[in-house]
Specification:
The protein has about 240 residues and is an alpha+beta fold. It has 2 domains: about 80 residues, Phosphorylase Kinase, domain 1, CATH 3.30.200.20; about 140 residues, D-amino Acid Aminotransferase, Chain A, domain 1 (2-Layer Sandwich). The protein is built from 6 helices and 13 strands. The chain is globular.
C-alpha cells in the first residue's frame, strides 16, 4: 500500500490517499486544539499516543463484532483505514454529566445519567458543531432513518464494550463522540477513539485525564493520556 498525496488536513490528523481507492492513511499529529481551533498547540508524543490508543480501542471493538474502518497500524503515528463516505452527524453518549450538558441544564458535574443519554450534533466547525435531531438529519439528507438507527445501536454497543474496559482500569468513561461513514453500503465506525474525543476521569478522585486538561489549562495533558493508556493496557513501547 503506497502513501500518496495529502487529501485533507484536520485539526489533529492528516489524511492521505493510497494506491487503493478503498483505503486511506491517517497521520496522527502532535497538534492539539480547543474551542473549534481557536487555541492550537503542539504537544510532544501526543500523536503517537493517540495512534496507539486508537488502534487498541478499534481492535477491541472489532473483537466485539463492531465493524470499524481500522485496518492496521503502520507506524507509531500512522494507521491504514477503510475509505468511508462520512456522515456529517456526530453521535454522543453521556454516562455522566459534564461539559455542555452541565452548562445547558445547570446539572452538577459528574451526576450519573441512568440510562446514558444519546445526542446528535452536526459536524461543522464553523458553526460550532450544533446540536441537531434525527428529523433534521433526515430532512437535510445527511443520513437516512435506517442509517441513524444503526448508528444509535452501534454507539450504545460501543458504550457497553468500552465502559467495561475503562471500569477495569478504575476509570469513568464520562462521555464520548463517534463518527460513522458508509463503506460498500455498510455503516462503519470511522474517525478515532482517543482521549481527544471523550472524557475520562479517575473513578476515586475524579481527576480529569482527557482533553479537558488542555481545554481547562490543567497541564500534564500527554501525561494524562499516558496514564489512561497504561491503565487499560494500551502498549506504548
Amino acid at each position: 500500500m503506497q502513501k500518496q498525496q495529502l487529501l485533507y488536513k484536520g485539526k489533529a490528523k492528516s489524511v492521505y490517499e493510497t494506491d487503493d481507492n478503498d483505503f486511506l492513511i491517517l497521520h496522527f499529529r502532535d497538534d492539539t486544539s480547543a474551542f473549534n481551533g481557536e487555541r492550537v498547540e503542539q504537544l510532544a508524543r501526543k500523536g503517537e499516543i493517540n495512534n496507539r490508543f486508537n488502534a487498541f480501542i478499534m481492535q477491541k471493538l472489532t473483537d466485539a463484532g463492531i465493524e470499524t474502518h481500522f485496518e492496521k497500524q503502520l507506524s507509531t503515528d500512522e494507521v491504514l483505514v477503510k475509505r468511508l463516505e462520512m456522515i456529517p452527524v456526530e453521535c454522543v453518549v453521556r454516562n455522566f454529566a459534564a461539559g455542555s450538558l452541565v452548562r445547558r441544564l445547570g446539572l452538577e458535574e459528574g451526576q450519573a445519567l441512568t440510562p446514558p443519554t444519546y445526542e446528535l450534533f452536526h459536524k461543522d466547525d464553523a458553526l460550532g458543531d450544533p446540536m441537531v435531531n434525527e428529523s433534521l438529519s433526515i430532512s437535510l439528507d445527511w443520513a437516512t432513518k435506517e442509517q441513524l438507527s444503526q448508528m444509535q445501536e452501534l454507539t450504545y454497543q460501543v458504550n457497553d464494550v468500552l465502559s467495561e474496559i475503562f471500569d477495569a482500569g478504575d476509570l469513568m468513561l464520562v462521555d464520548f463522540k463517534l463518527e460513522f461513514g458508509v463503506f460498500h453500503d455498510r455503516i462503519v465506525l470511522g474517525d478515532e477513539f482517543s482521549p481527544d474525543g471523550c472524557r475520562i476521569w479517575d473513578k476515586k478522585t475524579k481527576k480529569k485525564l482527557d482533553k479537558d486538561r488542555f481545554r481547562q489549562s490543567l497541564g500534564d495533558v500527554v501525561e494524562g493520556y499516558e496514564e489512561v493508556a497504561k491503565r487499560i493496557g494500551v502498549p506504548l513501547d
